[in-house]
User: What shape does this take?
Amino acid sequence: MRSLGLVVCCLATAASGWLNSNVERKLDLSNAIVRSTTTVTAFNNEEATDEYLFVVPESNVTRIAKLSVKVDKQEIPITETSRKGGNVYYTAKLKTKIANKASVTLKLRRSMVNSLRPFPPVVKQGESQFVDYNDNVYFLSPYATGKQTTTAKLASGTVESYSKVPPPVIQRGDTIVFGEYKEVEPMKQGPLRVHFMNNKPFMKAVTLRRVIEVSMWGNLAVEEWYAIENHGAKLKGTFSRLDYKRPGHSAPSSFTSLHAHLPQAATDIYFRDDIGNISTSTVGHADRSSKTREVIFTQRFPLFGGWKTRFYFGYNLPLEHALTHNGAENKLTVPFASPVKDLWVDDMVVEVILPEGVPVPEVKVGGKVITDFDVEYRSTYLDYSGRTVIVLKDSTLASPERSEELQVTFKFGTKDLLWEPIYLMVAFMTLFSSIIFFSRVLG
Amino acid sequence: MQKRGKKEKDEVVKPKVEKTVNLTLDDLPDPSELKMKESTLQIMIIFLVLGMLYIVAFCLRLFSVLRYESIIHEFDPHFNFRATKTLVYDGVEAFYNWFDTLVWYPLGRWVGHTVYPGLMLTSGAIYHTLHFFHFPIDIRNVCVFLAPLFAGNTALVTYILTKDCWDSGAGLIAAAFVAIVPGYISRSVAGSYDNEAIAIFAIINTFMGFVKSVKTGSMKWAAYSAVAYCYMVHAWGGYIYIINLLPVYVYGMVLIGRYSHRLYVAYSTFYVLGTLFSLLVPFVGFAAVFSNTHMAAPIVFALLQFHNIMGFLRMHLGDKLALFFKKMVSFLASGAIAIFAACLALGVVDITKTGRFFYMLNPAANTIPIIASISEHQATPWSSFFFDLSFLVLLMPVGMYFCFREWTDGAIFLLTYGITATYFGCVMTRLILVLAPVACMLAAIAVSRTLSLFMRDAQRGSKQDRNAVSNAASKTVAWCVTMLFGFLFLFYVVHCTWITSEAYSSPSIILQANGANGQRVIFDDYREGYFWLQTNTAEDAKIMSWWDYGYQMASMSNRTTLVDNNTWNNTHIATVGRCLASSEEDCYRIMKKLDVDYVLVVFGGFIGYSSDDINKFLWPIRIGGSVYPMIKEKDYLNDHGEYRVDAGASKRMMNSMMYKMCYHRFGEVQTSYQHPTGFDRVRNAVIGRKDFKLSKIQEAFTTEHWMVRIYRVKKEPNRG
Assistant: This one.
């Protein structure tokens, strides 16, 4: 079976005749989320083709928050083609066919969560957190590679150890350069390991529930429920408030705040948890260029490794910032992922509450039509049949990687808006006329 | 309009004052019924005023929501809130069968049968009604705004009761008084989600039905009163007051010769239905029939039947046979009393049960430290009468005087209510709450009567001959009195608003102070600590603390506690008290036996928060000492008998677990620039023991201002 797989694999590699003439890989290890940018200059050895294959080890796939390929700053579509020998093959579809003996430059971006393993797994308060990073020292590709280098940017210059084979491996401050390696054969692997200090907050939302409620009277209410955990090295022993407050002696890997970019027009921002208001949040000035406003959500207590908390926040947005309409056809456009920066979201549920009586709408995420969503009906104020609720699920997300937009197109005309006032008018009419009737007849 | 009605009434009343126990007089309705029927305009005005009072009563109680947030206050409301959530989410049946394993570890508590469920049922009903109409209101908001809502209801029923006892004008004034009286606001601000919040409404409602029934002889109103009483029994333990006050009133009426069939119908209906209804509450159950605190009601019920039969016999058989019958019944009654005494001697009927009720009747006799330790059980200081009732304190006796003058069934009822409530208000601070409505009603009668008298003078002077000297003088006096009352009203409104804003609108789990630059500083340490427990301890973690924080912890941390504000098991509380007062080794042994994982203390020395555990510490010692003789209060005081924390503190004190947990590493903290490190800002002293280490427990969490300190109990080390 394995040999068969190997044969197929060889066939696959043999079938396409690309050669990576130059690969430059940049690993950004300075955060909790590992971001890599690989610039590949590929040379076509055979007849013209518009397909380029690249490989990700199967064990890494579930940890990928974002995978994209750009050619000339334009994103091109990628599809998973096959899984062989513990690897997953993706095909990038180029815009144009690349002729024989011609080159193309691709930019692969990959964001990975859960790739930095805290080592030691427990630290005392006041101790720094060290993490261990393991990867392939070569760029994993089904094609042969001419020359390649890997540059790892670390969170600090404090490096405990790193793999030094194959040479040359050079450390300069907080960067380590692996290579340059020449004439690397296809699918070649070798261990890359860095053990270094990284005190960046390891924020993880175990669950996130975003509720977006459309009121056709002109308001969009957004509420987001987070269960947050610090997934860095766990705190061992005591927590001393005295030491925490003492300057220069505090807990380097703990965090208290989450930074979020909310829309500039957001009003009535609130920040609460199960037991009430959390009075420590700051709304920053609007950032004109990105049309956002930074809001800092400071938690009730600092989060050390392994500590958890829960909270939710919400805001209102005038509907014209999110909804466009063409007759009875309305198009709602909102960000799909969490607005919180550098947050790994493990499981996310997005609920879009549409007005009552809306038929099942068309849903797009990042331009792609989504069909696997649930539809519920939920009754709130003055509803009779319940509002249409779209429930979308997604997992392993990281912001700001997932900047794509959620687009919901639904039908709702102006006359549908009049039902609720009519209910109210009838109800009050009945009330008053019955009072008049009874006071005349009985009084 | 009311003065004319009043005058007519006076004229009507006078010829019929010589009322005797005569059956023929029963057919006449009570004199105060004979009033002018209000015109439509008057009804409109009354509706308008009452509507406005409802809004005022509601809005005045919202200071805390506006200043802080929609949050449940203090201690007991947190339990009520948690119970309400159970009721709403799990259903009524599950609520009645709810055995709470989260509290009183390892004993637990059968909450469904040890709680007055009225409050939860009310919120649940409101919640489900609103949700039925698809109003997605949060259960917390229902609970927070329930008390203000019922304050509005109380104003309405106060109006009706006063109107029935006196007249419509006094009713409106009483409603206005009660809407903003601080003594009632203290227990009914938004967020103060406690039994009393709805109980005052239930009390007045019961009385209203009863007085209406006594006045009209209507069984319908007596039944209404019994239903209202049923609600009251569901709502608050204070229903005992009603079931004793009404018999006292009825018995008094019989004694002073005002027995009537109306009274008979009212009380008989009320007693039978009311007792049946009160059996419905699991917590009350057969206590409504057997308990000695309820005994006045059946005795008066029997007397009333006897009295009525006597009247009937006298009418049909003549005096002689009736007298024979009376003797026979007296003989039987003495036999019954003898049997009762025998039961008492054999212990079938228990009247030795002491509790808050007897503590209330005779506060001096009781020395149970757990009851005495609660500040709201202390006797009322004089100043708080004025604080809570303002000038109503002065006008209440005037109202009583007018009631004596008037001497109708309603007025006598108000007198009975007023006099007994004054007694209880003096005994216990928190019973000012019961006094407040009747003080409002009596004061309203005084105001209404006086004003109608003088305003008539004032008006007459303007209309009739102006040159008459006496008229001019009386007119001046009349205007002065009217203006004086106007001033008093203004003062009352200002006083009530100020007190509500300053004294009664703090949720007590969030503290607020003004910073150096005048900005608001929020101390949210309680919630910080509680939420840390909820999110960062194992779900089955057991947390030990002094009982004050039990309810809050169960509600906000959702973790198991050992003791809480229910205080049903004195021994268990004493064990915790002993543990906190012991040395670290002894405490550790007890904690291991109780399976404790975390210990929580509240410490105010860092920011100067005075109601912390060190200041309360003498109570754990006393309560612990009341069960465990090795804990002695004098060991914790120094040689001069002083309670101190500085170098002059006793050795035992400095060695106690409480001291160590509160002051752990506090010796390294500089709280004030003028003082050395370890300066306690509550006790104004540098702590006596700075350098010590904890070996059996370790600091798990301390909140930002050190107010809540949580320690983890270390596991026993492995062998070898």
